[in-house]
Amino acid sequence: MSSSACGGIVVGLRFSHRIAGMHTMSSFLSMWATACRTSINKVIRPCFDISSIFPPSDLTKLELPFMFDTQSISKLKAAAKRGGFDSGREPSRVELVTALSSIALLHIAKLKNTQSKPLLIAHTVNLRGRTDLLWHENSCGNLYMVVHWKSAVEMNEPK
């Protein structure tokens, strides 16, 4: 925390995502501001019960940070349509980037091993507001689920 000459203050926060996500951080800031403006008695107490719904698990992970701008996503959508994506709706950004990443990873595996190998990709999905599970509005912690996607097709070189 620091202050400026005009009387304003600056607060910097850092949370480990193993402990809490953005929802918890923004709730903490909101409660802190409420306590400062009014009274500590007006603050909604946090509830740490999410682990009873989703017990923690130890998963090995590989993080590959890639950024795709709007133009790149548009090109991927056009390529998906040319490639036969015909589900009657536009593919989502997640579907497009997952498809591109999985094709690249399957090609790399085939180059290294001269044959296809199964591929498993996991997406984390924020479940706040997307489920009817009962939890408190002031629940703190990570409320997400890992969704696994496994390749079911062999990679064939285009002819």
Outline the fold blueprint.
Blueprint: E1 2-3, E2 9-10, H1 22-37, H2 50-53, H3 70-82, H4 93-113, E3 120-126, E4 144-150
Helix pairs in contact: 3-4
Pfam family, one: Transferase
InterPro entries: CAT-like_dom_sf
Keywords: Acyltransferase, Transferase
CATH class of the largest domain: Alpha Beta
Distance between the termini: 62 Å
Report the CATH architecture of the largest domain. 2-Layer Sandwich
Question: Which class of secondary structure composition applies to the elements?
Answer: alpha+beta
Mean pLDDT: 74
Give the tally of β-strands.
Answer: 4
Largest sheet: 2 strands, antiparallel
Helix coverage percent of residues? 25-40%
Strand content: 5-15%
Shape type: elongated
Question: What are the segments in which pLDDT stays under 50 over at least 5 consecutive residues?
Answer: none
Q: Can you walk through the features of this model?
A:
By secondary structure, the protein is α+β, with helices and mostly antiparallel strands. It has 2 domains: 46 residues, no CATH class; 113 residues, Chloramphenicol Acetyltransferase (2-Layer Sandwich), CATH 3.30.559. Helices cover 34% and strands 11% of the residues. The strands form 2 sheets. Strands 1-2 form a two-stranded antiparallel ribbon. A two-stranded antiparallel ribbon has the order 3-4. A hairpin with a 5-residue loop joins strand 1 and strand 2. The model has no long low-confidence stretch (mean pLDDT 74).
